[in-house]
């Protein structure tokens, strides 16, 4: 029974590490992708796209194979959580490493580049005219050290404040544009017996993203990045004062008591069932709403401007996603050909028709769900894009900050104590 | 019979050894080796000496995870072993208790993850059965965010663990009680001893060896607790239910610090081995009658 767990845990970690280590090349630099020259298979790894979008990916495969007789495209779709954690590293270290793989911008992309798994493809894409097919700013976040190492697939807004439009109308409220107005909205909601915010922060990232945006607006983007890059302390008076915005939300009972004990999905349910008027979360809520509560009326506003904040008050919290060509692949030219076909107008229109967003001019002109289209415009026209703590920076640092946020939001610690504790965790990493 | 070739015995052992080597030995050796490196799972390995071990002893979350698991182990000795012993005493005191034995054992047969999900619904502060029940009986002031409050989260997990495994220990003790010769019990009854006295003065002392094994199982199993914590709180709130296994898994799979995670795994293994050794040393050698 439970006695077997020691062996299970050690063997699981051991097996995972053995699998990863055993698959690595003797040079320690990971597996060679497609080592055999006679291997005419283009291997592509990504997260599960869903049934409708998978059909479009199959369409890309068909077009590629028709244009490259003798070649085969082989997809490896993995569950999001598995892919983003152990899945992709295992594949990259393996004997048949992907030639192209899905990745998120920020710290992850920088790590792939530093490890030698991201090829510089900017010149080849330009030569094929791919860049001309994309809207301005589409390639933002795809470069490391001035080199384009990612082909853009989408841009996710990681946090805006969604609100129940029926409830706002009923109470005569409008979307606030300043932090003071937002405070006033919160106070009116509370007076009307409605909890302003619902959130499920058991996994720390939902409130971590939200507060990350608030902090960057107050302390400024550079100070935010410096602290998360361990160049400056998190527990400075300026950060403590910024963190007090979360304390105010707790002290005013503006958020559900269960915030730190329920999952993000349970938080959405609270919002959809009218238990709260707003939920600060990312662009994916449109898909969740369409699936779980299609009749629920909602809209969003970006984080309101904070008086006296040092950051750009029009900034957007977001992350770019895209495809990376494996620098260790022997098929970089073929991989770029694939991306060329992928960027085609018909393909991009097909992606939009299947429910995805598109950064290409043809795709963008096709017309998305109005909520998603406005979100896409928001991030494309953002004067400053701020990376969420957990995708833009070291994960341990992000976890320390996100834990501090949850402690303050849950009323367990003062801003000073929470940030001091977070800084102690970060100091241990140095 | 003596084999006619010296290597024949090794040939017979080889299949079992191969399975053991691939599934246990090599992963353990690999984990030990990786614990001296920094590795993100795909990039180059960098030898770091004892840096990961030094870091582990300065990692406040990892160190505090052992305090949390200590509290959990103490709680589960009471809620699992002691409760199992009492349940076994109750169901063995009289015939016709098959229904109760099965009922108490059912949670043991269910997957832990399923139980954890079910209990997360029961304890949900917004829609959960427990808070709704407290409301219904006029005890609204007792309502809590059970899994989101640092004061109750670990206790809640321990109670759920007790609910599951008390039945397992009940089965062990029940089997131990069944091995006690009936004539001894009957003699006690003829001498006027009540069931509680028989349980306390006779049954419990006669299964002391089983009790010691049960406590060892509970302690070593408790140190390795993972499923319940992972599903119910994922180590939260604010790391107050973080246990070594959940932190280890987060380190390897979420943070992609394979080398550091390997060091944490090695330390955990050593701790559990030391507990086992210490326990076996402390275990009193007696000539008491056991069944």
Give the gist of this structure.
Chain A has 19 helices and 11 strands.
- Biggest beta-sheet profile of chain A: 9 strands, mixed
Q: If you consult CATH, what is the topology of one domain in chain B? A: MetI-like fold
How many strand units of chain B?
2
Cα distance spanning the termini of chain B: 36 Å
So, CATH architecture of one domain in chain B?
Orthogonal Bundle
How many structural domains of chain A?
Answer: 2
Top CATH class of one domain in chain B:
Mainly Alpha
Mean pLDDT over all positions of chain B: 91
Mean pLDDT of chain A equals 88
Uncertain parts of chain A:
19-32
Radius of gyration of chain B: 24 Å
Fourth-tier CATH superfamily name of one domain in chain B: MetI-like
Distance N terminus to C terminus of chain A?
Answer: 40 Å
Structural class, from secondary structure content of chain A? alpha/beta
Reconstruct the topology from this structure.
The complex is a heterodimer of chains A (about 425) and B (about 290).
Chain A (H helix, E strand, L loop, with lengths): L3 H20 L17 E7 L3 H17 L4 E7 L1 H14 L6 E5 L2 H8 L7 H6 L15 E2 L2 E2 L2 E14 H6 L8 H13 L3 E3 L7 H15 L1 H8 L8 H15 L12 H9 L3 E6 L3 H8 L5 E4 L14 E10 L6 H11 L2 H9 L7 H6 L3 H11 L4 E2 L2 H4 L2 H15 L5 H13 L3
Parallel strand pairs in A: 1-2, 1-3, 7-8, 10-11
Antiparallel strand pairs in A: 3-10, 4-5, 6-8, 6-9, 6-10
Chain B lengths: L7 H27 L2 E2 L7 E2 L3 H8 L1 H33 L5 H12 L2 H12 L5 H8 L16 H26 L3 H9 L4 H12 L1 H16 L3 H6 L11 H11 L3 H25 L9
Antiparallel strand pairs in B: 1-2
Helix pairs in contact in B: 1-13, 2-13, 3-7, 3-10, 4-7, 10-13, 12-13
